[in-house]
User: Fold this.
Amino acid sequence: GWSEPVVLDTGPESADPNCPTGLVVDGSGNAMAVWAGPNLSGTRFSIRPADGTWTTAETHSLQGLEPRIVVNDAGLGWLAYRISDTAAVPTRTLWLVPFSLAEGTFGSPVDLGLLADPQRNPGDISPLYEVGIDASGTALVVWAVAGRQIVAQHVSRSPAIGRIGLPHVLGSDRGADPT
Assistant:
């Protein structure tokens, strides 16, 4: 049956029903929950080892919005963030952070760059993106650029974490949406 609910975090931001969340479970049953919001000092996370209890919530240093999280069966994963600056026309960039769920450790963030280019197209601030992972731990990211293009890019874990492939435009269409 179902276990009793466990409160992972408290406070006004964590109680916000619009606070984006994510959850992954690897092949061994280890789990990680993530959540973020504009008033948090970074993306928050908690880990539950297989057959264990949730850890006290911690904060990852990047202050990202709309986190996406993926993990493969071996427990290798990526946490993705969208970061916006505070300019009148915000620049939105996409970051990936590798992690090992079994070890509970994070690697160095990888900056994939702009999700949109407000200098060329001030209305291009699409936040839509998705992340996937393969058995080797390589992340694949797909995003929409202002509803005009769908772009894909990969980031490998080996031989060097953060080896970034060139972006590929998969298609162009007004109203494109990667979800």
Confidence is low (pLDDT under 50) at residues 174-179. The first strand starts at residue 21 and ends at 25.
